[in-house]
Amino acid sequence: MRIAGIAGALLMGGLNIASSQVITSNSDEPTVYAYCQQFQRLYTQIREQTVVPDSARMQFSTIMKGLQSRFQSAESFRVDSLQRDSLRQTKDYFWFPVRGYSTSAIGGTHGEGYRGKGFDLFDYTVRGSHPAQDIFVVDRNQNNLDDRTSQPVDILSMSSGLVVSIETGWKPGSDYRGGNWVWVYDPNLHGLFYYAHNSAVHVVTGQWVQAGQKIAEMGRTGFNAYKTRSPTHLHLMYLQIQPDGLPQPLNSYQWLITARTSN
Ligand SMILES: [Zn+2]
């Protein structure tokens, strides 16, 4: 079932990666696109619990270190940790990920919906944490359309990056919590954005996206997000990759409240 998606992505992946300087492949290292495929495969295995957490952790670390080294071999992506810190504080770096909405759409008061403690990306049985911000829209009849415009709500990439994995096959009844999601790797920050519960995904694995570019449309996909008690929202998570290649959730609230917005 996933074959068609991958084949499509294969065709587009090589062409679409705008920063072609990244993929000068004069070594035996896997290409950027190969790392994306590995990421997609691994994340699916984690979700299906067909890989043990320790093995998943090792594979993940290898993929992230590989991606980092591929990008760092390109001049424009050589960012040290000092530059990274200043980028994160640059006002114009991030776009608010929900078109037509801004700070007031973030769940909870002052972003209190974020609970990073106890999160383990590699163990799907661990629950209770919510290392993310939920961003809500006005959709009282839960038809995935903005009640104010009767249009779908665009999900925008918060920063420029590489689409490392997508899911488009979620169906009601599936117990996958993320529904149809997009993972974007930002090589400047060396971190991953995760956009979940989309109704439609508008990018493919291996594609380069610009900050503020539409990547999906908001939806209600995902085991809990589909339920009537859940208001329509985007689940936004950011994982900072550590020197050991492993992810650490980071609260994106400060980025969101200073992000550029679009109508
Ligand atoms: Zn959430």
Automatic annotation (TrEMBL):
Keywords: Hydrolase. Pfam families: Peptidase_M23 (PF01551). Coiled coil: none annotated. Residues 153-237 form the M23ase beta-sheet core domain. SUPFAM superfamilies: Duplicated hybrid motif (SSF51261). GO terms for molecular function: hydrolase activity. It comes from the Bacteria. Transmembrane segments: none annotated. This is Murein DD-endopeptidase MepM/ murein hydrolase activator NlpD. It comes from Spirosoma utsteinense.
